[in-house]
Amino acid sequence: MSFVWYSGVVFVAVLTAALVRRASCRSPPSPPVTGKKNTVLFLTDCAHGLSKVHVATTLALLQKYPSVDIHYASFPMLKGELQRVSDAANSKSAEARPIQWHELRGPSFIAAAMRTWGDATGLIAPPGVAGSEKLLRDFELVASPWTADELWDLYCQMKELIERIDPAVVVLDSMLRPAMDVSRSLNRTRVVLSPNALTDVLAGMQPWGAPFWKYPALGSGFPFPLPWRLVLANVYLQLRLIYGVVFSPALAAKRRFLSDKGVRDPMPLVDVKFPEAPWISMAFPEAGLPLDFIPSHVMPVGPIVLDVATADKQDEELASWLKRAPTVLVNLGSAVEYDERMAREMAGALATVLESTNTQVLWKLQKACEFSDGALEPVEEHIKSGRLRIESWLDVDPVSLLQTGDIILSVHHGGANCYHEAILTGVPQVILPLWVDLYNFAQIAEYLGVGIWPGKDTAPMWYAEVLSDGFVRALTGESSVAMKKRARELEAVARRYGEVAGHT
Q1: Erythromycin biosynthesis protein CIII-like C-terminal domain: from which residue to which, for each copy (predicted)?
Q2: 437 φ/ψ sector (left φ>0, alpha ψ -120 to 50, else beta)
Q3: Are residues 256 and 361 in the same domain?
Q4: pLDDT tens column, 30-44
């Protein structure tokens, strides 16, 4: 055991020294190229969880600065959402210019990853050591799900766009690696917009080896503060991940391919290390784990949410239904799909909630496959009475529902957008994570006292009895009162960020 600890410390020391030496040898960056004034180019993936902060930012820009010329390049799935935002901005100000859409050819991030995962269930993995093998495979995939040829093709498409549009600034999604590479290679004025927790981005930059003994490893689900009994397991997870990524043959081959094509420093391990590219984060310190160091170019601005109109303007009938009783919103994001077992367990849990409280439930149920209505048998009577409403998709922006004041509990999967939307609106949370970064937000919510993670001992499996216990604790009793109080406190902090940044 002492050998593992010693060898780990030596490995980290050598790796850190190599990275520092490489950074010190890099020549100071030349002034970035700034193009046409009042022209912005967004380069993002189309996945809702990745692009929502960018789409929300386009709306804010159009509302506050209608003369800005916004260009948006992404994959086909996002086109309709951009049109909705553009129309909403134009309805409020005739001066707002329409968003100019540029469609990228080739597989999106999610489409490329799904060649390995198959569907969303391919992401599901247990937290901690039990899921470490899959985490390592997934992390390599997430770092670059595209083939080398696809990376180069996307790089060339975006290079042509940047040179033709000549924007004053390029706004980036850190998961769209070709966009990060091309904007850096061309030395364009650029910013990165990130929905991620600050610890996900900055834990590795904290002093005194904090990622190993202080902060839970990515996907571990370990609590914070990290108990001493879990430190060795945490060190193991961190070292396994670092080693796997640094010495990945697949990633190394892609880097060589791009370097041979003339791409400068392709696919760096740490994108946030470049101070010439401001990193704008909707996470903020008070809503995350405490950090000792935040670089000056990393700017926490508070929740960046998409809210095109009030809920009653988006769906009058649904907004009216919400007024009938205090409502629990069950919305596990855009990626999570239910199989029959998951739906049956959730239905059983919701039946208990509806029988023991005076609430009603709005449940967004996306099916992974067709299954019989028998899975919903526990809640049949509540569906007939109208106390349980099931929708396959919500046509209302989730934050608009939370803004009504009629939602008293947000049940979600631990996605960054769901988490920060609940923080901004002061709504307590129950988090049901199924993979990697989702586990991080679940333990952050518990640490801050704004949420409950029921079933952490059986994750990622759900069981009705455990779920219902968590739901009822969040809705009744002393724990519910404490969560509501803490949620309102963080809401006040989040809104102060909005008053300064003008983005909420």
Answers
A1: 400-459
A2: alpha
A3: no
A4: 899 999 999 999 999
pLDDT at 26: 54
Tell me which residue range forms the domain holding 247. Answer: 36-300
User: In the chain, what's the furthest Cα-to-Cα distance?
Assistant: 69
* pLDDT tens string 91-137: 988 899 999 999 999 999 999 999 999 988 899 999 999 999 898 88
Beta bridge partners of 452: 430
- State whether the Cα torsion 53-59-65-69 is positive or negative: positive
What's the token pair of residue 385?
Answer: 């009475």
The SS3 assignment for 281 reads strand
Count of helices and strands (H, E) across the chain: 20, 13
* Eight-state DSSP code of residue 33: B
Burial class (CB in 10 A: 0-12, 13-18, 19+), 98: middle
Note whether 248 and 365 are same-domain residues.
Answer: no
Residue at which a domain ends, from 248, 278, 300: 300
Q: Out of 246, 279, 300, pick the residue that ends a domain.
A: 300
Beta-carbon count within 10 A of 117 CB? 15
Please tell me whether residues 237 and 331 are part of one structural domain.
Answer: no
- The span from the CA of 157 to the CA of 14, in Å, is 38
Rg, the chain, Cα only:
23
- Cβ 329 vs Cβ 407: under 8 Å: yes
Report the alpha-carbon distance of residue 120 to residue 101 in Å, rounded: 28
Token pair 């569906």 is found at 383
Number of residues written out for the chain: 504
User: CB of 281 within 8 A of CB of 198?
Assistant: yes
Whether residues 397 and 481 share a domain: the answer is yes
Task: Tell me the C-alpha distance between 23 and 17, whole Å.
Answer: 10
CB atoms within 10 A of CB 160: 12
Q: What one-character DSSP code corresponds to residue 268?
A: -
Q: Rounded distance, CA 338 to CA 51, Å? A: 23
Tell me how far apart the alpha carbons of residues 311 and 308 are, in angstroms, rounded to a whole number.
Answer: 9
Provide the pLDDT for residue 500: 45
DSSP-derived 3-state class of residue 500: helix
* Beta-bridge partners for 171: 42, 191
Task: Determine the 3-state secondary structure of 388 from DSSP.
Answer: strand
Residues 340 and 246 in one domain: no
With tokens 């000056």, the residue in question is 296
Q: pTM value?
A: 0.93
Question: Residue 328 is part of a domain; what is its CATH number?
Answer: 3.40.50.2000
**The tokens of 299 are what?**
């700017």
